[in-house]
Design brief:
The protein has 128 residues and is mainly beta. It contains 1 helix and 11 strands, in the order βββββββββαββ. Strand 5 and strand 6 (58-60) form a beta hairpin.
Length: 128
């Protein structure tokens, strides 16, 4: 069992930056692949970024490549999402998720149903 708590959301102007954090409880953080998803009003939740257990592999949605960067710090049991050059269409609730399966690769890391634990979400609003 792992608990996830997101922080760092807020209101920012277009072109600005935010860094989201997701703190995980427990002593087995390094055994989980981690992902970020988002849900905009009236839309389904969608994949944003993911990072492998070792941190050696990362995956991004096409819409955020080159602007958002996922990273993890095992010493702090925390995964980050650095968000630069933000656009109004990035406005959403951002969720952190953890996946305990031993599988790796794009399909597993980018598919919502493969994740076992979810945080409560943090709101990101980008004004134009």
């Amino acid at each position: 069992q792992v608990q996830l708590v997101e922080s760092g959301g807020g209101l920012v102007q277009a072109g600005g930056s935010l860094r989201l954090s997701c703190a995980a409880s427990g002593r087995t953080f390094s055994s989980y692949a981690m992902g970020w998803f988002r849900q905009a009003p009236g839309k389904e939740r969608e994949f944003v970024a993911a990072i492998s257990r070792s941190g050696g592999s990362t995956y991004y949605a096409d819409s955020v490549k080159g602007r958002l960067t996922i990273s993890r710090d095992s010493a702090k049991n925390t995964v980050y999402l650095q968000m630069n050059s933000l656009k109004p269409e990035d406005t959403a609730v951002y969720y952190c998720a953890a996946q305990r399966s031993g599988y790796s690769g794009s399909y597993y890391y980018t598919t919502e149903i493969r994740y076992d634990y979810w945080g409560q979400g943090t709101q990101v609003t980008v004004s134009s």
